[in-house]
Design brief:
alpha/beta; Glycerol-3-phosphate (1)-acyltransferase; disordered C terminus; 6 helices
């Protein structure tokens, strides 16, 4: 825990002191309990940026491949990340995320599952909706827009909301909620009115 906050301070100084990232809407974050923080994904730096932006420790679902390196895997675990096998029903990762949410810890999910390469929001996968619905946690939408350059990056935190469904949600229901409700809320935070996120294309 001490190591996490040491890293948090250093990363926060970098992004909010040197890169002068604008952070808006942080007052929307629930003060108590776990929540599913859902953001668009524009750069490999997004997890570090979001972690530094949050006033309490958050946990991340990160692609399993990123843990292949012993050093990289150690760093990811220090900052609260845990592996998930993408494009599969990774039950172990789902159980881990649900356990964190049930004990009041926030979990960060990138619903698109991968970084945007062309400046557009991608199709959401159902995982974020599944976690929010099964845990009964709030969804907190976040939009990252701009470039990872001094004074050019902005984070907007939206109002939390709950997913509602009568009965057992099917895979199609989860997909619809992820795309229409979760990504719809994220889109409002990053859209410039032309159905395009204001981001820098590519793996910046």
């Amino acid at each position: 825990m001490v190591l996490y906050w040491m890293v948090w301070v250093a990363v926060r100084i970098w992004y909010f002191g040197i890169l002068r990232v604008r952070l808006e809407g942080v007052g929307h974050l629930p003060r108590r309990g776990g929540y599913v923080l859902c953001s668009n994904h524009i750069s490999w730096q997004d997890p570090m940026l979001l972690g530094a932006a949050m006033p309490k420790q958050v946990h991340f679902m990160a692609k399993a491949e990123a843990f292949a390196s012993p050093v990289g895997g150690l760093i990811l675990r220090v900052v609260g990340a845990f592996p998930v096998r993408r494009h599969t029903a990774d039950r172990g990762a789902i159980r881990r995320a649900l356990g964190l949410l049930h004990t009041g810890k926030p979990v960060v999910v990138f619903p698109e599952g991968t970084r945007s390469r062309d400046g557009r929001l991608g199709q959401a996968e159902p995982g974020a909706a599944l976690l929010a619905l099964w845990s009964g946690s709030d969804v907190v939408p976040v939009g990252i827009s701009g470039r990872y350059r001094p004074g050019q990056l902005r984070i907007r935190v939206g109002a939390p909301f709950r997913l509602e469904h009568n009965g057992r949600a099917s895979a199609q229901d989860l997909q619809r909620m992820a795309q229409e409700e979760i990504m719809g809320a994220v889109r409002k935070l990053v859209s410039d009115g032309r159905d395009r996120a204001r981001i820098a294309p590519g793996p910046a």
